[in-house]
Amino acid sequence: MARTNDFALAYAAAHEDAGMARINLAPILHRIAEDPNYLFGDELVTLAGHCPAHADTRKEDFEKVAINALLGVLYNDLREHIIARMPLDETGHLRLSTPPDSPHGLDFADPDGMAAADPDRMVGFLRDSICHLLDAIIKDWAIKVMMEEERCRSEGSITELAAAGFVLSRELQKSVLHGPSGYDMLSITKTGSHTALHVCWNLVEAAPMLRPGLDEAAYDDLARRSLKQVLPLAMGSLGMLCQFMAAGRIEADDHQAIHPLRSDQSAFLYDPDRDLIVLNADLIEPTAMTGERHYTGCPAFYANGLINLYMEVVLTLAAQHGMYGRLQGKTG
């Protein structure tokens, strides 16, 4: 069995083979924290002081570094906002509402129907429900950022949150990559959260599929310990992520995060030597757009604990609804 860090090494090497160099956002975020005025300077929008890897580096690369750095600044606040707004009942369990027009035909008001549902249907319902909850919380957060901008504008003051929100809005409006599609902070963040939840659900669902016969606590432990093996996906380019997910059959044709993990997936493997779920490095193929020379990884990767928070939410739901036991009975 391959070493557990082989995927990360192969993934980084494939980016190099595709002609891309990684720009680590951590030093940029540190610079912003030390001097918030850096947000308004020219350096941030010119690869944050990095020399272009090639003369034909596309404009989108410059945008990518600035936009992802700005999102990285904002997402630390997002994490705290999600924690504060997460609805819990008196026992500490996560309370979800039935999504409107849910295709799964289940309802939290009908526990008997949920108990009788097959594993895939139940997982899809939980996926759909948590995506809707996070969408609502993220929308509330986006309004908070805009209100902070307005408050600072009216008072003639400035905060890091308002500054990052203002500069991000400016950069997105003139963006070659995002401008034509109308992507804004809200839509980008919703899409990113869905992807993070999708990968976390995949890891949780892969546990009983690849390592049958354990109890709930053992599966929870296995998924928690294996998260580090999956994090390299968040460190790569969007194109490489999409390539891997498609090759491993863990991305649905409609790209929605509500679909359960397929039984014929090949993205996740079980490493018996280390008792971990790992990613299949054999599926990696160097992938890049023409002129794409730089990548940063997902901005959520740089927000302290945000991806771990998404994983914790998924693990909580899996435990609340006894999904490990139900998934062990899954066939086909």
Give start-end ranges of low-pLDDT stretches.
Answer: none
> What is the ordering of alpha helices and beta strands?
HEHHHHHHHHEEEHHH
Strand count, sense and barrel status of the largest sheet are: 2 strands, parallel
Mean pLDDT equals 93
Helix content: 40-55%
Number of domains: 1
Beta-strand residue percentage? under 5%
> How far is the first residue's CA from the last residue's CA?
26 Å
**Judging from the principal axes of the Cα atoms, what is the shape?**
globular
Radius of gyration: 21 Å
What order do the strands of the largest sheet run in, or round the barrel if closed? 1-4
Summing up helix and strand content along with how strands pair, one would put the structural category as: mainly alpha
What kind of oligomer do you see? single chain
What is the tally of helical segments?
12
What's the count of strands?
A: 4
Question: What are the defining features of this structure?
Answer:
two-stranded parallel sheet; 4 strands; mainly alpha; two-stranded antiparallel ribbon; 12 helices; 332 residues
Short note summarizing the structure:
By secondary structure, this protein is mostly helical. The protein has one domain (6-327). The chain is 55% helix and 4% strand.
Walkthrough of the structure:
The protein has 332 residues and is mostly helical. It has one domain (6-327). It is 55% helix and 4% strand. Helix 2 packs across helix 3 (59-85) and helix 3 (59-85) crosses helix 5 (119-155). The longest helix has 37 residues, at 119-155. The mean pLDDT is 93.
